[in-house]
Amino acid sequence: MMTQEQCTHRNNVQSSEKPQVYKVGIYGWRKRCLYFFVLLLMILILINLALTIWILKVMNFTIDGMGNLRITEKGLKLEGASEFLQPLYAKEIHSKPGRPLFLQSSRNISVNIVNSNNQLLTQLVTGSNGFKARGKMFEVKSTSGKLLFSADEQEVVVGAERLRVMGAEGAVFSKSVETPHVRAEPFKELRLESPTRSLVMEAPKGIQILAEAGDIQAICRNELRLESKDGEISLDARRIRLMRLPEGKASTSSSSSGNRQTVYEVCVCPNGRLFLSQAGIGSTCQISNNVCL
Q1: What percent of the chain has pLDDT over 90?
Q2: What 3-state class would DSSP assign to 139?
Q3: pLDDT band at 5 (very low <50, low <70, confident <90, very high)
């Protein structure tokens, strides 16, 4: 057993020693590196915040949209020029009230209408080569709804009151032309011409050619034919002149008027040919019918 003096001595020895202290934390170069990284992180956060504010300012971000794009109750609203790099799908595109709608492309602008099977029904293409429209029918109407022009596979209809052809060569038709009335402009002449083929005008009830303030000329190279199957052909004028008719020559035995005869009669051959014959006391057509041969 330990005596009282030994216990007292041991306690004195332990009390004379200093207590040990354990340090908790980061010290030295580790602490400096930590402060450096914290400072770098704060700088990056400030730069990121400044860039975000700058982007919001440049792109004009607002509660309603960004830039020229605004989101409204009726849809999207674009102000100013806008460029779309990908296809645009929209139900309706219109401009501001009183402002035009301008579409611009460096190549062409195409508008396609397809069905549920993605088959092309109607196409409208405008480009550097021209303007093309594809569809079953094409119509142009006035503001009042009157049909001005329409075209389909069967016919082309011009609903305007007047069709004006400004070309110097006029209008060229490869097939027949059906019209109830052909009229020239006031103080202008009307000319129907077929340079290399024949010109035929037909009507079931008749053809009327009227020139109230001018002349009518019918010129051809080979044959001019006026035909009426069920009716008659009337030449109603104060003076009718038949130019360059051939003259029939009578036989010497039957000629009694001599060379001073200046009066002629118009004779008709069985084939319809007209010729002149010197007039006599009686008809001289029978003795001058050598022209009919």
Answers
A1: 7
A2: strand
A3: low
63-104: pLDDT as tens digits: 777 767 777 777 777 777 777 777 777 778 877 778 888 877
pTM above 0.70, yes or no: no
Instruction: Tell which residue, 82, 114, 85, has the closest CA to residue 101.
Output: 82
* Six token digits for residue 273: 């040919």
Are 274 and 266 in contact by the 8 Å Cβ rule? The answer is yes
CA 35 to chain centre: 73
The edge-to-edge listing of strands for the beta sheet with 138-141 is 138-141, 147-151, 156-158
Q: What is the 3-state secondary structure (H, E, C) of 50-104?
A: HHHHHHHHHCCCCCCEECCEEEECCEEEECCCCCCCCCCCCCCCCCCCCCCCCCC
Spatial distance between the Cα atoms of 82 and 88, rounded to a whole number of angstroms: 12
pLDDT digits (tens, 9 = 90+) for 148-179: 999 988 888 888 888 888 887 777 777 777 88
How many residues appear in the chain? 293
Which DSSP symbol is given to 107? Answer: S
Instruction: Please check whether residue 216 is in contact with residue 191, taking contact to mean a CB–CB distance below 8 angstroms.
Output: no
Tokens describing residue 46: 């400030």
Say how far apart CA 48 and CA 27 lie, in whole Å: 31
CA separation for the pair 122, 111 (Å, rounded): 8
What's the CA gap between 250 and 291, in Å, rounded? 10
User: 234 is written with which tokens?
Assistant: 């009337």
Per the DSSP assignment, residues forming a β-bridge with 66 are 69
